[in-house]
Amino acid sequence: MGKSSNDAALQHLNSAQRLFWERADRGSGTIAGSVRQGK
């Protein structure tokens, strides 16, 4: 039970993070691009 709810929270965090990086790419491509390549 706790694990499945944790997974859901992780998935929500991942999608939110993805949105953040997509916006950061548009805002300041250099910083976001370098951080993304490091991942």
From TrEMBL:
Q: What is this protein called?
A: Uncharacterized protein
The species this protein was found in = Desulfitobacterium hafniense DP7
